[in-house]
Amino acid sequence: MSDVVELSGISRGTLYRYFHNKEEILDAIAAHIRDGLLRQLSSAVEDRPELDVRVQVVTEALVGFSRTHPEAIQVIALEPEFNVNAVRNLFPQFAILLEELLTPALELTPAVRSNASTPGELSELILRVAGSTFFIPSENFDEVPLAVAALPCLRVGADST
Q1: pLDDT digits (tens, 9 = 90+) for 106-158
Q2: What is the distance, to the nearest Å, from the Cα of residue 116 to the centroid of all Cα atoms in its chain?
Q3: Is residue 62 scored above 50 in pLDDT?
């Protein structure tokens, strides 16, 4: 808490008025990250609702969050325990949202049409791949969404043969 007071420039009394301990601060940061990413994902789909690019749009929003919210990456780097807890708590929520956003497009993919996978399974796979960019740096984040969207099993309208 002393580090937060020093780095933020707020008084100790003000900090303790809002947060009683470090865990409450980290919980607030997790909520901020969750809410920001949920808004960014929903907004991305609203802006580009076409099913043929839906997987790429959602993956770009997931990967792009680290650029638009560098504070999320900073807390991940500074608080390893936060990472584990946040991922455990937030992953199910994001998996549900991704399934809702992606199902209309994924139902048109060879993997779902052939019953090899469900939209939920593919959504979770996409979340895991895109989410890994928060923990494993990439030379070019822009390549991740393109690579995910190019997977034959995820191409909307692609032949299932």
Answers
A1: 999 999 999 999 999 999 999 888 877 777 766 776 777 878 877 777 777 65
A2: 25
A3: yes
Residue with tokens 């993997």: 111
Q: Higher model confidence: residue 1 or residue 109?
A: 109
Looking at 2-142, list the stretches that DSSP marks H as alpha helix, in order from N- to C-terminal side: 2-8, 12-18, 22-47, 54-68, 70-78, 80-106, 110-113, 119-132
- Give the per-residue pLDDT at 161: 44
In CATH, what number does 26-154 get?
Answer: 1.10.357
Q: Is the pLDDT of residue 101 over 80?
A: yes
Lookup: tokens for 25 = 């601060």
Q: What letter represents residue 107's amino acid? A: E
Say which residue the tokens 């770009």 belong to.
Answer: 60
Q: Is 48 helix (H, G, I), strand (E, B) or coil?
A: coil
Measured CA to CA, the distance from residue 51 to residue 64 in angstroms comes to: 20
Q: Using CB atoms within 10 A of its CB, is residue 130 exposed (0-12), middle (13-18) or buried (19+)?
A: buried
Residues composing the chain:
161
Q: How far apart are the first and last CA of the chain?
A: 58
> Which residues make Cβ contacts (< 8 Å) with residue 35, sequence separation at least 6?
none
